[in-house]
Amino acid sequence: MTDTEEIRLEPCEPGVLTPAELKTLFLFEKLTDEQLTWIAEHGCTVRVAAGNLVIREGDPAEAMFVLLSGTISLTRRVGQDDVVTTRTEQRGVYMGATNAYLRDDGVPRNYMASMRALSDSEFFMLSATDFGWLMREWFPMAIHLLEGLTLGLRNTQAAIGERQRLAALGALSAGLMHELNNPAAAASRATGALRQRVAAMRMKLGKLAAGKVAPDRLTALLELQEEVIERAAKAPALTAMQTADLEDELGDWMEERGVTAPWDVAPVFAQGNIDTECLSQIEARLASPELLDQAIHWIGYALETEQLMSDIEDATGRVSSLVLAAKRYSHLDRAAHQWIDVHPGLDSTLVMLAHKIGDVRVVKDYDRSLPQIPAHPAELNQVWTNLIDNAFQAMGGEGTLTVRTYREDERLVVSIGDTGPGMPPEIRKRVFEPFFTTKPVGEGTGLGLDISYRIVVNGHGGDLTVESQPGDTKFLVRLPISESPAA
């Protein structure tokens, strides 16, 4: 559908439907004869040929339509696509200016969807002005209730939605700050320790020089230091048990040779996977028992300095990774609608929620061959956040979270599963209703899954379903792989 497509309706014929015929429509079946006569006089029938547009989303809502015969479809515009939300041939269904009875609050009264006749169709049509008048005059009490419900629900949903976004932002910010604090504190501790080790190395170098070490021996010592550092950098990582055993061997070796404070130095060499064979080579090349003690300590300081610098590098790299994950999560530097790979968004969401993982085991089963899809990445990240956060809460801090991606025909599927207690059928069929929540008062707004559903279905033309049994609950997000053709 294009914004310039012409709406071609046959001339409206007033008085075609009699009061008795109007009474057969469920919308009017309880009205009095006098009321039915008024509606028959003020309304008219209109015919629309198959394929023609009846009303266009966004146009001023000027009329109320009641289907008499034929098949129609309702569509909503999503980006450049028209997504079919309803297809029906039920006689008596109504659409159009359904809110014409609301008092003028400055909000434009526009059609909320487009309607197209899929077959030759006939409608009973009543102007928005007449429909609004009869509702306010005939049902004043009902109008007060409906206005209160409609306007109150709109304001309540806006307020709670804003509060939920702020609460989610606060939770994510707290989690991010928590995650950033760990590497920042590690870097700070490593920097303090590094300062002490560098000072000790300067002092040890002074002692070596004061000991009148021959230049060739000092050169050999410097060469040994570089060789040991290089060897430590290339050495494979040891298990905790292997490291403990190596510390004992190194401590015994140093103690036998009179190295001062051997049990303080041994862990540094063990951390670098420097064994007694390497120490024996150092001893042989120095050929000086007097120099061995100072050489061991000096090389130990150099090793610890390298280890501390590696710790700082890892910590700052972790900070950079977290900042990048936050940037990807918010997509601050990206266009709203684009072709995306869903996996970075899932990964960044898991990083943002890492503080909630606890003892939960996270399994990622990604199909990396999946193509990019057209989407709003920031909105999809909101969906991933709601679904993953709900999964963590359902499991109570322990269990397995499985995030899986795969292809199903022409759709990409993201499955988010947990091993929580599951949902009974009476809850499962209501989880996507606005304001429905199983959480205690004050802990849930009941909008998370409703918002997620609207983002996936209305915003992306996809589908969001849930499958649940004890120990296995899966939310399945199905997204179209290609742009949907216009309706």
| Broad shape | rod-shaped
* Spatial strand arrangement across the major sheet: 1-2-9-4-7
Summed up, the domain count is 3
Q: Roughly how many Å apart are the termini?
A: 6 Å
Helix content: 40-55%
Radius of gyration over C-alpha positions, nearest whole angstrom? 36 Å
Please count the beta strands (DSSP E, at least 2 residues each): 16
Low-pLDDT sequence parts? 440-446
What's the total helix number? 13
Oligomer: single chain
Q: What percentage of the residues does DSSP assign to strands (E)?
A: 15-25%
Q: Give the class from helix and strand content and strand pairing.
A: alpha+beta
Task: Give a summary of the structure in a few sentences.
This protein has helices at residues 19-23, 33-42, 128-138, 140-210, 215-234, 240-256, 262-271, 276-286, 289-330, 342-352, 377-395, 425-428, 448-460, and strands at 13-14, 44-48, 53-55, 63-69, 72-78, 81-88, 94-96, 114-117, 121-127, 338-340, 359-365, 373-375, 398-408, 411-418, 463-469, 472-480. The strands form four sheets. Strands 1-2-9-4-7 form a five-stranded antiparallel beta sheet. A five-stranded mixed beta sheet has the order 11-13-14-16-15, with helices on one face. A four-stranded antiparallel beta sheet has the order 3-8-5-6.
How does this model look, in words?
By secondary structure, the chain is an alpha+beta fold. It has 3 domains: 13-138, Jelly Rolls, CATH 2.60.120; 176-319, no CATH class; 338-480, Histidine kinase-like ATPase, C-terminal domain (Heat Shock Protein 90), CATH 3.30.565. Helices cover 50% and strands 19% of the residues. It is built from 13 helices and 16 strands. The chain has helices at 19-23, 33-42, 128-138, 140-210, 215-234, 240-256, 262-271, 276-286, 289-330, 342-352, 377-395, 425-428, 448-460; strands at 13-14, 44-48, 53-55, 63-69, 72-78, 81-88, 94-96, 114-117, 121-127, 338-340, 359-365, 373-375, 398-408, 411-418, 463-469, 472-480. The strands form 4 sheets. Strands 1-2-9-4-7 form a 5-stranded antiparallel β-sheet. A 5-stranded mixed β-sheet has the order 11-13-14-16-15, covered by helices on one side. A 4-stranded antiparallel β-sheet has the order 3-8-5-6. The longest helix is centred in the middle third of the chain and has 71 residues, at 140-210. The protein is rod-shaped. The chain starts with 12 loop residues before the first strand and ends in a 7-residue tail after the last strand. Residues 440-446 have low confidence and may be disordered. It catalyses: ATP + protein L-histidine = ADP + protein N-phospho-L-histidine. One of its GO terms (biological process) is phosphorelay signal transduction system. InterPro entries: cNMP-bd_CS (IPR018488), cNMP-bd_dom (IPR000595), cNMP-bd_dom_sf (IPR018490), HATPase_C_sf (IPR036890), HATPase_dom (IPR003594), His_kinase_dom (IPR005467), RmlC-like_jellyroll (IPR014710), Sig_transdc_His_kin-like_C (IPR004358). GO terms for molecular function: protein histidine kinase activity. It comes from Actinoplanes aureus.
